[in-house]
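EI: anyone free to look at a 305-residue chain?
SC: sure, send it
EI:
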Amino acid sequence: MKFRQIEAFRYIMLRGTTAAAAAEMHVTQPAVSRLISDLEHSLGFLLFERRKGRLHPTHEAAEFFRSVEESFLGLEKLQSVAAHIRTRAPKELKIASTSAIASTLLPLALSEHKKYFPNERIVVHTDGMAEIVMKLQTNSVDLAVGLQLPQLSGIEQEFIGNARFVFAARHDHPLTRKSVITAEDLIGESVLTVLDSNPTYWSKLGQALEPVETKVSKQLFIDTSHTGYSMIAAGLAVGVLEPFAARVWAANGVVTRPFEPAIYYPYNLAYPTNTRHHKSLHSFTESIKNAAKSMPEIFEAQLQS
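SC: here you go
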């Protein structure tokens, strides 16, 4: 038995004539008659009696049709499910990002995204670098936004811009009187140190501070920039940090200045490899890029490593 033979039989049973079956199947009437003859031959019994040019189902045909209909109903359900999967918009968008991005870039991007997908549920995971990598590699999120990740299996990335790290201190700190801060200006200061499971990632920052490494105090270690800015706001230290969270902490008396030598870090979008980029996700990535272009902390040129 072949599928087209069963299909022809079903349409004749439902529509009553070979002509109607042919119209449903987009074939000729003789082609339907041939399919029925071949099906009867493979089954070993007659399905229709031919009387005066019309087909009349046999008792065997009625019994066989019940099983055919059960199978076709199951097949149609599967086809309906497949069509729904192809065309549906996701019920929620799952995003991972660092805390600094979650409190600055993401709100701007989501404000635009919600204009086009007002009823979509948004789940934001605020994570460190290691957690973001894990969520991407296990397909636990649709995308991540933050510092460029190392080249890793299971993750694709798209550049959105570079950010220049800034010197940050409380508004009444003497160094805020200067327009530009250098590594030598940090001598004798309590300087925040980034605590990370992959310290080599922060090599640019380490190299910039290396000339004064032994002449600064390192007693405060942080794993998020928001924590660092809170320590700075309390007057406990100064630091060289990403510039985004400074927007939030300016209201708490934190002041930033350009730092020399300039330290740039690239920021990317990241996706689990081979995921289907549905309409909503594509729209959201465009909103992120638009938001990034509007932020003075980011410039678009790709830097040579």
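EI: The CA atoms of residues 121 and 182 lie 45 Å apart.
SC: 👍
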